[in-house]
């Protein structure tokens, strides 16, 4: 299929409608919830027990009937995930007509977007897509990334975020900022590798910045 544009979307307040209530619909809902989706609607006569549970606790809304075009009102993202190809095709056409982005679980190349395999480590998000060519390979690579980028990355990235905020406050020169932030990220990566992703000692951003300044100027002299 043609080249696709990967982006990160803030789902808060954006209605996402999943048509179908089976295994695939449940997987889409799960990843939408993990991504912070708070306006999630599922349309189907039958639902998995997990979808029923999520509706009971108010995480999603269920429309207990077959798909009708009105289901698309106010929708920003739609997932056609029924086991009926003609229903999925109808959803696709209705979305195209209305300019709503649609995902086709059956055929990535028919829809507007494909869903990648994802590893989340706090703010670090690694997503893998083969643009629909080999979901099995996407899953395989996702598993490799899970092993390579352990849980400690969540903490590491959070600390780099705090350091960046501090650097933006105290360092006016954009070139130095860039150099310091690169140095910090290199150092963080090395610490996580050597500690085998174990505990990384807490450090004040100001202290850390001092250490980084020395390391960066040493590297500069070399
Ligand atoms: C990543 C993930 C995200 C998600 O779905 O949320 C995802 N598929 C996942 C699982 C999975 N998919 C398949 C199996 C069966 C066994 C196996 O192959 O292992 C399993 C495993 C299982 O079901 O347990 C087979 C399969 N997948 C598609 C078809 C239809 C076709 O190709 O026509 C068939 C053939 C059906 C058949 O085999 O008959 C289509 C798509 N699957 C995509 C994504 C999109 C393209 C992604 C890409 O290429 O980058 C796309 C186009 C749909 C879309 O965009 O929604 C999620 C893994 C989450 C994770 O574990 O990380
Ligand atoms: N994305 C992927 O990774 C992937 C993997 C395997 C299969 N698929 C495809 O995804 C589709 C769904 O698979 P599944 O395993 O979830 O099927 P499933 O049988 O578990 O669920 C199908 C769901 O569609 C609902 N449905 C049927 N007609 C409907 C209508 N008119 N309106 C609303 N809902 C309707 C049913 O009630 C049911 O809840 C299949 O077409 C399959 O080819 C995708």
UniProtKB/TrEMBL annotation:
Pathway: Porphyrin-containing compound metabolism; siroheme biosynthesis; sirohydrochlorin from precorrin-2: step 1/1
Domain Siroheme synthase central: 121-147
Protein name stated in the entry: precorrin-2 dehydrogenase
GO BP terms in the entry: siroheme biosynthetic process
Keyword Ligase: no
EC main group: oxidoreductase
Keyword NAD: yes
Keywords assigned: Lyase, NAD, Oxidoreductase, Porphyrin biosynthesis
EC number: 1.3.1.76
GO molecular function: ferrochelatase activity; precorrin-2 dehydrogenase activity
Catalytic activity field: precorrin-2 + NAD(+) = sirohydrochlorin + NADH + 2 H(+)
